[in-house]
Write a structure and sequence with these properties.
Distance between the termini: 97 Å
Shape: elongated
Largest sheet: 7 strands, parallel
Structural class: alpha/beta
Radius of gyration: 36 Å
């Protein structure tokens, strides 16, 4: 294989201050055999804990607007290689502006490269250009055609730009190729992880949206930079195979969509959901909210956009075959998936959940259900803190239900039978105590002394407290000033009449189930219930805003 001798080792990174562009610049500088020109519309800091500083000896900055061909020529004049990375924020959902930046920008870059006799142009595309909005992709390769229905405006424009780059290959001495990374993540990411965090802060984070059986390919940003440099090298000695071609780039470690997301969010201290919510239901809610925002001309739907992006990502399988990249440009990941996730979590530590109270010890944090029950012995029993004790109380309640409801015994007859049993016991004890020396009055006094005086006092205090509470309620009602108390009493009496008097056995059985089962279940799924309530509140809030905005706004003018 004959190597192509470059007249210059100077390269230009257009979009060098973008998410991927910073990594490309840092990697080229690390190689040490490149003079790098960073070309972008805004000069940003290129030195942080992950990147090498921008050196004046081996790197320089050029202010370039891709809409202005002359500024491109000034930046790439005398260079042999151009890496073109357009930032996905350039589209901003505006088709006209995005077309000017992405598509016309590519045309200007290609034209400028031809005029300046640039030998190689490497374009950073996206795997989404073949992703149809209605179909999954299983181990997709380069034989896939462009999508017929793109998932968003940015992807459609990227597909047009990529096609222009590939068609320009081998014309006027310019060789081109494109790489298609899938779901780029890493330090500096502006989309995947921030969207996950936005969702994690909302009520939607309490659920697994869609199916957890979907698989996705992800690409760490350092691997994307490595692939672009590999593609440039391959154009030098495998031009026939690589020129005018595009190849998919991933980390070669497909993961379950929710496995990737949950590892990220757990690393930042967010809740791990357990309950699945169908993606179709979420889409309907999001579309409904977006429709109401559109009708009311409201733009406060950033959370809905984040949820919509996550639903699209998590409810579909998108995996790609990177054999062509491995064979033709000799690509292999330089950062593993585990290392990439770890470094991303560290870089986004500022987005971690505010856990000032949780960091101490989450085990001692009381649930809201426990706080509702008073955090006392009743809460311990109903929430099954001590299973043996709770089971004893449950059996006692079941016995009372059986005795009074199923056997249809009244309270008076039950007390009479209990007194009869007590009398029989005392009579038998008195009779036996005279005949047997083992059952003496000493043992009786011992049993009597064992009766807990503390327990009797506690019982008396409870009775007195209940009596005082009832007296306070009656005094408050008699004064006729506390309307909230009056309404509470009215509702309580009505429910008592409706549930207890009309259907006492059924009501008691429901109360038993509610006490010993529902409280426990509510505590186990407290986050999910809170999330569901939050989603319903959000939907109701948007509905109320939509209805109120639709009402006629007429002012009544009075002639005085």
């Amino acid at each position: 294989m004959a190597m192509v001798d470059d007249q210059s080792k100077t390269c230009v990174v257009i979009g060098g201050t973008s998410f991927v562009g910073k990594c490309v610049v840092a990697r080229l500088l690390k190689l040490g055999n490149w003079i790098v020109r960073v070309a972008d519309s805004t000069q940003l800091g290129l030195s942080d804990h992950n990147h090498h500083p921008l050196s004046t000896d081996h790197a320089s900055f050029f202010n370039v607007d891709v809409r202005n061909k002359k500024s491109i020529i000034d930046a790439i004049e005398g260079s042999s290689v151009v890496f073109y990375l357009d930032d996905d924020d350039s589209c901003n959902l505006d088709f006209n502006y995005g077309y000017t930046i992405i598509v016309k920008g590519v045309k200007n870059v290609i034209s400028a490269c031809r005029e300046c006799k640039v030998r190689r142009l490497i374009y950073n595309s996206t795997a989404d250009v073949v992703l149809d909005s209605l179909q999954d992709v299983h181990n997709g390769n380069e034989t896939l055609l462009y999508a017929t229905e793109f998932k968003n405006v940015y992807t459609e424009l990227k597909a047009q730009a990529e096609a222009l780059v590939l068609l320009a290959s081998d014309i006027d001495g310019l060789l081109t190729c494109a790489v298609r990374p899938s779901n780029i993540f890493g330090p500096g990411d502006k989309h995947i992880l921030p969207s996950l965090v936005d969702v994690a802060k909302s009520s939607w984070a309490k659920f697994i949206i869609g199916s957890d059986g979907t698989m996705c390919d992800y690409t760490y940003v350092e691997n994307v930079a490595h692939a672009l440099i590999c593609a440039e090298a391959a154009l030098g000695y495998r031009m026939v195979i690589v020129s005018g071609k595009a190849c998919f780039i991933t980390n070669l470690e497909p993961l379950g969509s929710w496995e990737f997301s949950l590892r990220m969010l757990e690393g930042l201290g967010y809740y791990r959901p357990r309950v699945k919510l169908p993606a179709m239901v979420v889409r309907l809610i999001i579309y409904l909210i977006k429709w109401m925002h559109l009708k009311t001309n409201s733009r406060n739907n950033s959370n809905c956009a984040s949820v919509h992006n996550i639903v699209q990502l998590m409810s579909r399988t998108t995996t790609y075959d990177c054999s062509a990249a491995q064979q033709h440009i000799e690509y292999s990941p330089v950062v593993s998936m585990d290392e990439g996730i770890t470094s991303t979590i560290e870089a986004f530590s500022h987005l971690a959940k505010d856990s000032s109270s949780v960091i101490l010890d989450e085990r001692y944090e009381r649930s809201k259900v426990e706080q509702l029950l008073g955090c006392g012995e009743v809460a311990d029993i109903l929430l099954w803190r001590d299973e043996r004790k709770s089971f004893v109380y449950f059996c006692g309640v079941v016995s009372l239900f059986y005795w009074f409801c199923l056997c249809e015994r009244t309270l008076v007859s039950s007390i009479a039978q209990l007194l009869l049993v007590v009398i029989i016991f005392l009579y038998g004890y008195a009779t036996l105590s005279h005949e047997s020396p083992l059952l003496s009055t000493d043992s009786f006094s011992y049993l009597r002394s064992e009766g807990s005086e503390t327990g009797m006092r506690s019982c008396a205090r409870i009775i007195a407290k209940t009596w005082n509470g009832i007296s306070y309620i009656f005094r408050t009602l008699a004064q006729g000033e506390d309307w909230s108390m009056f309404l509470k009493v009215v509702v309580a009496i009505y429910l008592f009449k409706l549930l207890l008097i009309d259907s006492f056995p059924i009501s008691l059985a429901i109360a038993m189930s509610f006490s010993f089962i529902l409280f426990f279940v509510c505590e186990q799924y407290e986050e999910e219930i809170e999330g569901l309530i939050g989603i319903l509140n959000e939907l109701i809030r948007h509905s109320v805003a939509f209805v109120t905005s639709s009402l006629p706004n007429k002012t009544l003018e009075l002639d005085l």
